[in-house]
Structures are given as C-alpha cells and as structure tokens.
Design goal:
The chain is α+β, with helices and mostly antiparallel strands and 227 residues long. The protein has 2 domains: 12-89, no CATH class; 121-226, no CATH class. Helices cover 44% and strands 11% of the residues. Strand 3 (175-180) and strand 4 (183-188) form a beta hairpin. The protein is rod-shaped and about 85 Å long.
C-alpha cells in the first residue's frame, strides 16, 4: 500500500500529486466558456475571470491543486467565445448599416423622381425660380458657405410643402443637423451617420448621383452609390 509497482515506496511528492484535486474554478470556467458559444459570449466573460482565478490558485497551491492545462484551455475557450460573438455582432451591425443605407438611397431616388415629375428638373439652383428655397421653412435653408450646399438643398427640396410635397417626409430617414450663427439646416445621413453626398445631373447624365462614403470614409472602394 502506497508502494510503486516496482515495490519501492511512493515519494511524498508523488502521493501529493495523486491526491491533488482539480480546481473547481477551472471546471466552472470551462463550462461557462462552452456555454458562451450559445449565449452571445455573455458567459464567456465570467468564464475568463474564473479561469484566471483557478490558474492562480493552482500556481499558489504548491501541488495541492491540479489542472493547469485545463485552466489555460478554459480561458482560451471562454475568450474565443467572446471574440467570435464580438466579430459576429460587429459584422451583423455593419451589414444592417449597409442595407439601411441602400434602402435610404433607394428612397431618396424615388423621392427625386416624384420631385422631377412635379418640377421637370432635379433640385439644384442658386435661385428660387423653381421654388426650392423659397417655399421651405427657414431651418431648412443652408448657410451660403456650407460645405454641403447641394445636400442641404436636396433635403430642403424633398421636404418642402408645395405641389405634391413633401416628397420624402423628415421622419422617414435619419438626418444630421448642421448649424451656423442664425441658421440651421439638415442633411440626409447614411447608416454610419455621415451625410449622403448629392451630385445634380451633369451634361451626359440623366439622374443625380447619390453616394455614401461607406464604412471607411478614406476608402472609396466601399462607397455605396445610387444613380
């Protein structure tokens, strides 16, 4: 009893290793880490915490506790569940923003068509001959030095109450506000909260260009366009 198969007595350290118990924190950490794949990573957070606590207990136990490989594995599993769900949720949010931007551009395009049916032109004029700026509330009028003159005129034109307007009610799409002393105007915003660019038709084109800068304003390759 207590001897090795060779007949030699077991060393005290060997007997301690045989009697060592796996840290309960490690077990709980592993369970929570696995559940994290089914709980949007929520249980992965306490899983990582318990895994770290269990690992520290094992290191400080002097051999009374075992399970260091299991503790490291539990931490990795819990962390992986967090990372995977974070990536998934981020990608899902970006997909929603992209789809929302596409729907907004399509809605603005339809509103521009209705505007064109009423006025036989698309909104863009520095005069009020077509009623674009003369028939709208003051807060829709852009400041003369606005860097988004065309975009402000677009919003104003599609929201004015003349003929069959408003062509696109303000509560249908998200808008951002720009202000200057004594003035305030609105711009349609994409899913990332940045103004929708509006370029009136130029010679050789039949329809204005609507453009979102996409998720990365510095990368034109991911821009969302609608002609």
């Amino acid at each position: 009893m207590g001897d090795h198969p060779s007949g030699e007595p077991a060393s005290p350290s060997g007997q301690a290793r045989d009697r060592a118990m796996t840290s309960c924190y490690v077990v709980y950490s592993l369970i929570l880490g696995i559940l994290g794949f089914c709980t949007f990573g929520v249980t992965g957070i306490p899983g990582v915490v318990l895994g770290v606590i269990g690992l520290r207990q094992i290191v400080r136990s002097g051999g009374r506790l075992r399970g260091r490989p299991e503790a490291v594995g539990a931490i990795l599993v819990s962390g992986m569940s967090l990372v995977l769900w974070a990536v998934f949720l981020w990608a899902d949010r970006e997909r929603g923003r992209y789809q929302g931007t596409q729907m907004l551009l399509e809605g603005i395009r339809g509103a521009l068509q209705r505007y064109h049916e009423d006025w036989a032109k698309y909104p863009w004029s520095e005069t009020t001959s077509d009623g674009v700026m003369g028939a709208v509330a003051a807060e829709y009028r852009p400041a003369p030095d606005s860097p988004h003159d065309a975009e402000a005129v677009l919003y104003a034109a599609l929201n004015m109450r003349r003929r069959n307007g408003p062509y696109m009610p303000p509560d249908v799409a998200m808008a951002v506000t720009r202000e200057a002393p004594g003035r305030r105007w609105f711009l349609y915003a994409d899913g990332w909260g940045r103004p929708i660019r509006y370029t009136p038709p130029v010679p050789g084109t039949d329809f204005p260009l609507l453009e979102s800068e996409g998720p990365d304003p510095d990368d034109s390759a991911d821009n969302v366009l609608k002609y």
